[in-house]
Structure prediction request, 505 residues.
Amino acid sequence: MKNYNDELETILEKKSFSVDVKNILLNMLYKIETSYEDYFIVKRNVEDKKVFIQKILNTIEECNEIVLMKPSESEEKENIYTKFKIDKENKKIEVYPNEEAMLYALNNFNYIKMYLSEDYKLIRHSLPKLLNVGREINNTEIIRDFDAWSWNIQKDEITSIETNLIYQNLQILLGYKKLNELLENKLLKTTLLPLEDSLKEVYGEDNTKIILNLIYKLSIIIDVNEDQEERKRIFEQKVLLDKEYSRLNNKRKLIDDISKCKKIIFDKIKEIDIILNNREKLVEEYNKRNEKLPDHSKIFSLSHFSEILLRERKQELDKIEEYNKIIEPKNYTFSKSKYENDLNLLSNIKLDGKIKNSTTKLMINLQEIFLDCFNTQIDKAETKKDILNLIYINRYYNFIPFDSEKYIKDVKELKTKLLNIKSNLAKKLYYYKIVNKNMEFDIVENIFNTKIISIEDIDFEIEKKDEKIILNLYDEETVAETIDIDVHDIDVSNVKFNKKMKLFN
Prediction:
């Protein structure tokens, strides 16, 4: 195994970083190295350890200076992004004196961040922000939630619980590598089609449309809740959309207005033609325009002026063509539909005040469609490796925070779909003879909520006490978790009691 600690020591020998900075970097790398195996086992959707650590080492080597910042008195209330500063030009990082802030800073130093063009007016700010922040939260999870001994989710240290959940949804649906490739794809700046196509390929057009519409809408809400300037910009966009949609919606008036505009344009073109075909008028107009222009901007010849008039004529003809396109049936229907979709994206979002929008209902809707799509992955799984991966991924998903108080597994609105997922996975375990046949179906479902790192190494023992079944889950020789099950909920006729057995074959 490669000794990354020695490699870091070699890099640090060439740096003038302070002793405290070097210690934090060494401690950070130690935590990552010792936790990465557990991190991989629990999550599955992670970057290769060698790649992950090498990126960090390369960034440290590239930095000229890393300076520790003094934490402010209100540190606990501060956002992680106030805990570091990056000066890319001078290759300098200023950061709070802790491993998590250091990892955030190093990740941000060389990030290829996602951007969107002006064509995506409503989400050009919010969607890249959501995906970039989600990626940062994802890449610091190993320090935040793993400590080489246990998996302990720190809800209060997640920068944005909503953003993290949406990002994890996409990562589970697309896989780590695919999502990373998409975020670093230059095409994504001008079109979201690569993202749409990747989802459609696996989950179909209807599911993809629902998923992305919910993500786009949620990204706007999260953004306008945090950024008053963006709230103002989106409000202005909505006013323009309302105006344009009203104009399109009244087709008779639209045609009348376009006819009037075209008449004015034709008159301008006619006037230009008269000037171009009459030298006296050409000279007269040439002199008239030059009189109004400053010396440095004057038109230097009649031939140059003729070229200007021809360009103006073409511009007016282009306007007529644009007006004609607006009322062509196909273009008219497309434009109207686009405005409807944009307005639907902004529907029920409060933009004219400082009241925060709630995301709860939309987040539940997103999880519902996500779980439907996750079922598609379960249906397609046909090997022990694929099924075990899905067991782990589902277990990880159950423990993603939904809000500051609940994990996904605790959201009552999702209970039915979550049970359906567990049932489908359990059926796969039995069908492919992966699970011990002495483990009753209804008991198997309890493994999806265990936080024992390696599910495959779990031993179990079943005890009967009065009206309860006691399920003991062993991590090596120790009882790591005890689960009470109502004896009336399961068939115990074939259960072997008080015998320690392997969970998986």
